[in-house]
Amino acid sequence: MAGIDHARYGVNRDLTSCDPVSRLRVDKPTTGFVPISRQGSPMTLIQLSAPLTVTDGGLETTLVFHHGIDLPDFAAFPLLDTEHGRGALADYYQPYLDLGRRLGTPVVVDTPTWRANLDWGARLGYDTTRLAAVNRRAVEFVRDLATNRPGGPVEHVVDGVVGPRGDGYVVGEAMSASEAAAYHGLQARAFAEAGAAMMTAVTMTYVDEAIGVVRAAGSVSLPVVISFTVETDGVLPSGEPLGDAIARVDGATDAAAAYYMVNCAHPAHFAEQLTLGAGWLARVKGIRANASRCSHAELDEATELDRGDVVDLAGWYGRLNALLPDLRVVGGCCGTDHEHVAAIAESLTGVRA
Fold it and tell me: For residue 278, which phi and psi values (nearest 5 degrees)?
């Protein structure tokens, strides 16, 4: 993560001391709630029919570097536990909801739960009961923000967000697909119980964890999106090309994911991988790029936030729009804020209409 003090935020630390994922079963809820019977379908997602949908930017980098908020382990979800924290989150989401209203586009409203999984939660003092509760509360919180707006509700999709078990830049200790399904089941169930419309796995670094997330979402009938991150050469941190990774996940899950995204990389890092005419490109419907052109390793060592060039980044999204046959969801990742996302969305509004 850009400009992060490792000693302060705990990025890239070994998480293997936490309870082993093998103790969990995807078919044995850990929250004590009854099984969920409601059925979700990717076709109910409004962003699949709207010409353009916006989402937010770099939540954690904005809170740390622009708002001066301490986020141990780069985790935003504990902010939901305090009035001050909820106020900071509300201030963060407001300009994105305002942007959606101004442009007349739906907004995918992500929960601030990228770190709210078993390992990171344990590091921050959350047991499984408390962790499930905060994930449910996150859904309720962002839904309320989008619904109770001055001037009425903003058209929106409530998206429960999960992150990787380990760090978002390196694979670390890999799980099997079955282990990953069990591991991410707690968050999937919490999102479904709270009424989220979908679930997205952000900053996925290898295929098996992504397959597990798709299976976890399917077990509670939630539409799911997989967002891979890539290195400066356009391949996943696992070394697998993006197109191959998408094909493998689709092959193992009967193409159950609603669509795919790329996040936490600058477009210059992966644009050359988007070969015109490749069939898998139609599965990539969302981009949440970094503001900086730096590599993940360089961002880890940075001492200041790199906001990049707002106009240049918007221009890159225009190039991606020409390469991707069905780009529909745009937002940002590390280093971006509402100004980046506004510039991107405004540049594409006429093109995507």
Answer: -65, 130
Residue 116: its H or E element: none
pLDDT at 30 over 50: no
User: What string of DSSP letters covers 142-195?
Assistant: HHHHHHS-TTSPPPEEEEEEE--SS-SSS--SPPPHHHHHHHTHHHHHHHHHHT
Specify whether the CB–CB gap between 186 and 98 falls below 8 A.
no
- Secondary-structure percent of the chain, ordered helix, strand, coil, rounded to 5: 45, 10, 40
Question: How far is CA 312 from each of CA 84, 236, 265, 307, rounded to the nearest angstrom?
Answer: 35, 24, 15, 11
| Both structure tokens of 21 | 């994922």
With cut-offs at 50, 70 and 90, classify the pLDDT of residue 135: very high
Continuous segment of H or E residues that includes residue 162: strand 156-162
DSSP string covering 204-218: E-SHHHHHHHHHHHH
Specify the DSSP element, H or E, that contains 343. helix 338-352
Instruction: Classify the C-alpha dihedral 313-318-322-324 as positive or negative.
Output: positive
Q: How many residues does the chain have?
A: 353
Rg (CA), the chain: 18
Q: For residue 150, what are the CA distances in angstroms to 56, 88, 134, 307, 344? A: 19, 18, 26, 30, 25
**Could you identify the residue written with the tokens 């694979």?**
171
pLDDT for residue 111: 98
Task: Count the Cβ atoms, other than its own, within 10 Å of residue 132.
Answer: 24
Q: How does pLDDT run across 98-119, given as a tens digit for each residue?
A: 999 999 999 999 999 999 999 9
The torsion region of residue 69 among left (phi > 0), alpha (psi -120 to 50) and beta comes to beta
Other C-beta atoms lying within 10 Å of the C-beta of residue 75: 23
Backbone angles phi, psi at 174, to 5 degrees: -80, 145
Q: For 140-178, what is each residue's pLDDT tens digit?
A: 999 999 999 988 999 999 999 999 999 877 888 899 999
Overall average pLDDT of the 86-94 stretch: 98
CB 27: neighbour CB atoms within 10 A? 9
Q: In terms of Cα–Cα distance, which of 307, 272, 314, 311 is closest to 292?
A: 307
Q: What is the pTM of this model?
A: 0.89
Task: For 26, list phi and psi in degrees, rounded to 5.
Answer: -65, -25
